[in-house]
C-alpha cells in the first residue's frame, strides 16, 4: 500500500491538532505546532512500519470497509456537501483520504491480530485487584439536580451581592417545579440554562458544600430556598437520588476482565511494535 507521505503527514497534523487542542493547526502557537508535527511524523513512521510488516500481508481491507469509514466522516460533517467543503478547506483530495483511511484500517487490523491471544485472567488475580482497588467499584451518594444560578460579579451592577440576592428571591417567589426549566432558560447564568437548568447526576464531594448540605434533606421535586455559595446564589430542584454503593466482586468482575483484556492487548501491541 502506497500513501503519499506529505499528504499523510498533513492529515495527521490536522487530526492531532483537533484531538490534542480542539483547534486547527493555524490556530496553534509555534510550540504547539512543533509538538503536533513531531507527533504526526512519529505516527506516519509507525503506520508505515506496521503496513510493511509480514503480518500486514494477511490483512484484507475491502473497498466496502473504506466506504464505511468515509461514511462515518460524512455523518460527522452533517452531509456530503459539508464533507466536501471540509476536504476543500483542509486541502485534501478524497482519493488521498481514502488511501489514508485504508492504511489506518490495515494498521488497526494488524494490531488486533498480533494481540488476539490474550491470557485468561486468573480468578484470584481478579479478586486481589478488586480488594486493592475497592474505590474503583464504589459510588458516592448522588443527586439528579437542576439549578438556577445568579453569579456574583461586582463588575456588573445587576450582579453585585445586593442585586443578585434581590433577583434570586424574586425568582424564588414565582418559580415552581413545573416552571423551573423555563425560568432557568430565561434567567440562569449557568451553562446548564440551555438544558433548562439540568445538571444531571452530581456525586457527593463534587458540589459546593452549601449545595450538598441542602440536597441532603431536600425532598424530591421540591424547589429549594435560595442558597449562597462562593460564586453566587442558587435555587435547586432534586429530581432523583442514588444512595452510596459498593459493587460486589461478582458485579465488578466483568469490568475487571475488560480492563485486563485492554491492558494485555496494549502490552502485546507495544511489545510487537518494539520489534519492528
UniProtKB/TrEMBL annotation:
Catalytic function, reaction form: [protein]-peptidylproline (omega=180) = [protein]-peptidylproline (omega=0)
Top-tier EC class: isomerase
Keywords associated with the record: Isomerase, Rotamase
Domain PpiC span(s) in chain numbering: 140-240
Gene Ontology molecular function: peptidyl-prolyl cis-trans isomerase activity
EC numbers on record: 5.2.1.8
Any one Pfam family match given in the protein's UniProt record, by short name: Rotamase
Keyword Isomerase in record: yes
Domain of life: Bacteria
Coiled coil: none
Database matches in PANTHER family: PEPTIDYL-PROLYL CIS-TRANS ISOMERASE HP_0175-RELATED, PEPTIDYLPROLYL ISOMERASE
Family of the protein in this entry: Belongs to the PpiC/parvulin rotamase family.
Protein name: peptidylprolyl isomerase
